[in-house]
Amino acid sequence: MGQGAPAATGLEGVMATLVYRCPTTGRSVQGWFADGVSENAGETYEAVMCTACSRVHLVSPKTGKALVAGEYFQRSQRRDKN
Question: What is the chain's percent helix, strand, coil content, to nearest 5?
Answer without folding.
Answer: 15, 30, 60
